[in-house]
Structures
1.
Amino acid sequence: MADSEEILQWYILGGVDEIYADEPYNALAAENKRPCEPAVVNQSRSPQVLYQTSAAAQRPATTLLAQSNNSACNNAREVCAAAQSLEELKAVMERFEGCSLKFSANSTVFGYGSPHADVMLIGEAPGADEDMQGKPFVGRSGQLLTKMLAAIGLKREECYITNILPWRPPGNRTPTNGEVAVCLPFLQRQIELVRPKYIFLLGGSAANAVLDNAESISRLRGHVIDYKTSDGLIIPALASFHPAYLLRTPQQKAKAWSDFLRLQRNLSEI
Ligand code: URA
């Protein structure tokens, strides 16, 4: 008979790498079915963090889901605008419950690095290592990113590194448009508070979310594109391949290297 370690390995091989509860839960059993429970928005005048009534709520009808996502986006924008420092924003993000990814993640992975950084690097979402350690880009792709930064004379700690989503999507699946929309105000506020001189976007998801377009990363990289904050500041942005993609496709490293060199050159001209 297999011992418990072998059983765990078997689960991990099958892609089950998260434990949601101590006991198995049959979501299909009749007694576990719940009525729809859309998110609730506090209507008071000062912005309050949105709380969902239940993490295990059944998927509501599409219109209700869209409405609750819309409320969550409005709520995120409101609470983010009220945050006057990165510390306040981090506290708000940790209390925010308008994105269901929060309930399957171990940590809320806020941005890391210098609050006065010249360069802000933006990835997609925490992976398993980031979720365990609570910091962005600390796994294999983070190690490659750190090496590429060092090669252009930048230390990780001198930059500000963050993601579009602060919570790991289960099994590293691609985030949905709704999840990106709810989390975007947190990223936009980080940009406004850090006010970097350059934004460097890692991968197509980050580039599309920040630049609000649907172009492929192959077409976006290699150009400087202006990003405009809500208070009118224009920050030049460069996009490149995601380090995880470079680990899988090392033949693209030469192009990524030329993007990093361009960043180095542009920074030296500021
Ligand atoms: N991939 C990302 O996009 N972000 C991380 O923080 C780690 C891996």
2.
Amino acid sequence: MTPKIYVVGIGPGDPGEMTPRAQKVLEKVEIIIGYRTYVDLIKDNFPGKEFIRSGMTEEVERCETALQKALEGKNLALISGGDSGIYGMAGIMLEVVNKSGQPVAVEIIPGVTAANAAAAVLGAPIMHDFAVISLSDRLTPLELIYKRIECAAAGDFVICLYNPKSKSRTGYLETARKIILKYRNEATPVGIVRNAAREDETYQVATLENMLDFEIDMFTVVIIGNSQTYIANGRMITPRGYKMF
Ligand code: SAH
């Protein structure tokens, strides 16, 4: 039988937000491999498994470990937070398997990504066309990130920012905001959701003008409304254009 690696998106955090398909796969495998924070989020719900946890910059090693274990005949899953195909492990795993030339199957199980979870907390901010942009320049040149922000802002996309700010990258969000302000006014609603669908979830509905006054870190998604987005009863709404009577 061809060895198989499951790449599983575990959702934003709360076990209730994990899909039944992801749950079933994780119950079935012997080994669960993932980034520390994500393994710690789920490990109590999967007793008796072997867990392999590793750090932030060790994605390729994690995939090589998964490949090696699969070739040894082990039944395993590689996990990502949210969806594994959105800044997650799915792409790297496919690349590592392809490069190895080994006959290993990869099954990818989708999950609820941070933008979905955050949008639901805020109201309905991504009801219209939206762009998801990561502010991390660990693997992407900063000029390209800013260019994409500029294009998304010019195109009036709702913009979801992942990896908005880390200890070493404090100024990128400020620059992103300045670029967006060339195209949108200061009153544009901005939703800030930290730890969406986790125990310590918090959120703010801010504006482009005051968004930098709130706590924003690597556990936060920032959703910047388009020119039509508004706030009603504390909820952020991007209208799709339906006529009300
Ligand atoms: N694969 C993940 C994204 C990984 S990139 C997904 O689909 O959600 C990591 C970034 O995602 C974080 O810096 C943060 O911006 C965002 N993120 C992930 N989970 C989150 C959560 N529960 N609440 C808020 N932001 C989250």
3.
Amino acid sequence: MAKIKSIKEEKFSNKKCLLRLDLNVPLSESGEILDDTRIIESKPSIDYLIDQGAKVIIISHIGRPNGKYEKKFSFKNIKDQIENRINREIIFIDFDDQSKAIDIVDSKNNSTLFMLDNLRFNPGEESNDDEFIDFLSSISDVYVNDGFGTIHRNHASITGVSKKIKSFGGLLLEKEIQNISKCMTTKSSNSIAILGGAKISDKIPIIENLSSSFSDVVITGGMLRPFLVASGEISNSNDIQDDNEVIVAKKILNENRNLFIPKQLICAKSLDHEPELLNSSQIESDDNIYDIGPNSLSDISNMIINSNKIIWNGPPGVYEKELFQNGTKTIIKAIVNSKSKIKVAGGGSTVAAINYFNSSDYFSHISTGGGAFLSMLEGKFLQGIEVLK
Ligand code: 3PG
């Protein structure tokens, strides 16, 4: 993949720099930031630009307010928490004062940090509207995108602005693209992709792309059942809501010979029922698959230990419940013990599981992206990256 233009190639002193971040962080009911990884990971670019003498205007979205102001989605609610995490003061520009943004920015010294309110209060953000692009470009001399988590979106602040002003990729964006691309493209005879998730139809291009870049692709999570039905392991399919999933699974199995489908599983009638260790042929229509059994886990662990590159998206079981966390724990343990230099993970629930078991230090790269990470695994053309080349 051709390299993006790095912020190291530009001088930012005396410049107004629009900095696109992905500060779409999870919040508790009372508005506390539950996971600050995206904020912490944005700090190196903020520090770099401020130290260079730029006026930095942070822009981001949070949630999906659908093009209109909604108090609960205002960054004003979490401005103090962001300031604490980045250890810097922010001059916050209220949504109502957006038209005065240029005057506010011009009235302050270099090396000052500003922040606009939620981009998605403006309908022009998601529709990539010219008028909104013009507004964003008018308040800045140069644009830096460091919001990897949104790089798959074709929005004004991601693909639009870079048509108007000089544009660069930030330090986090560079790190994400380099590490994920390296994992996808490094040739290795022993490599493993572990993939979870609920709907196969959403994952077809990802499974196909991983199948061609990795020697083994392990299927886990909600996708397991239709794969087991498709391969004739489970005869009943009455509780598969979408029969199409089985048809899709059959097609994928026929076309990709390197899929590993675990066949010993931990099942229960519901999360409150007693779990049972079952072989796939024993699974009945009212059994839910909540985790992988020890024999299948031992096969997966051996594959991981012998791999020279590992990528992981999607916990294999309900790791928050003690009875169903052995699969997730065992996969993490095998990744920790593997001598592979490339150990990449991404996706909200995967990163939450890694943090839950305090294992983040053992990965070579943990992505801040959800949909963006999956788009990279799919090998998709990402316009947000293209415009920065
Ligand atoms: C994410 O959390 O994956 C990004 O911030 C993108 O958010 P979106 O799915 O609402 O566009």
4.
Amino acid sequence: MSEKKIMVSGIKPSGKITLGNYIGALKNWVDNQDEFENYYFIADLHSVTVRQEPAKLRKQTLDSLALYLACGLDPEKNIIFIQSHVTAHPELSWVLSNMTYMGELNRMTQFKDKSKKNEENLNAGLFTYPVLMAADILLYQADYVPVGEDQKQHLELTRDLASRFNNRYSDTFKVPEPYIPKAGARIMSLQEPTSKMGKSDDNENGVIYITDTPEEIRRKFKRAVTDSVGIVQYNDEQPGIKNLLTIYSVLTKRPIEDIVKDYEGKGYGDFKTDVGEVVIEALNPIREKYEALISDKKYLQSIYQSGAEKAEKIARKTLRKVYKKSGFVPRF
Ligand code: TYM
């Protein structure tokens, strides 16, 4: 048995993976892969809470897998799978949904935001979304869940559900902790620096996708919204510059103060160009690896098949305990 602590996380294939996803989550998965026992999946079941075009969803799911690998996740060190391949996830979600209160789900800020954007498709899945997320995590007895800031509230619910089940029956689930990066947990749109950079933002100029070409990245950073202060410094009154400084600092591992010093007496033009170049340097090798991987469907298939097989074993073990404690008669 491995003594390593367990990490679990996922990304929805509801669009192309962004620089926000990379800095807030994926990069930390890669940086920590040696230290933990890791389960990373593509959250396709979560993505259909918003209407998806089937062919596009299929493509985006495989793209996400190729990108996980291209970012440096090693299939020898991580169990990588597609969420819908391990049916224990929706099964546990059902059990947990019977101990989740409507009031708890009503309070979720992501639900409130999404329901405003999806008034014409305010479906039950969007409401129970965090319960499935709790199941994703609890099935693997996760210690840590590496995510961006926006998932913190869902993690709190996950912890509450784990404790509630443990108290009602007996110790079954580990109570997980969020693992949120100190810097970069909330990367903002380049066009609207007071809103989060998101996969399905209407204004694509504000979003950097990991697969963007150098030309696209250069163009988007040139157009990045700044302010009229004219000084490169890190403060809340200058959200655009603050966001660019965060991106620069996380990707180069240089302290913000040092970067600020470099730009004393210089205008925003140089700074924006340089941030663009830093991002190109970080993303270009990933895009090149992605392009090679995405054409090798057989290889990708072998990864997700063996990943699901391994994940299934662990997940079933937890689910069996849950069913037994709930009073369901075992089939075997
Ligand atoms: P999703 O697909 O919206 O985002 C994937 C991950 O990226 C982080 N993230 C960001 N971090 C920094 N800045 C941003 N602008 C930014 N945008 C997104 C998110 O916090 C997340 O970590 N519900 C999850 C997927 C999920 C999941 C899970 C995660 C399903 N089951 C179980 C952890 C554990 C989601 O919608 O992520």
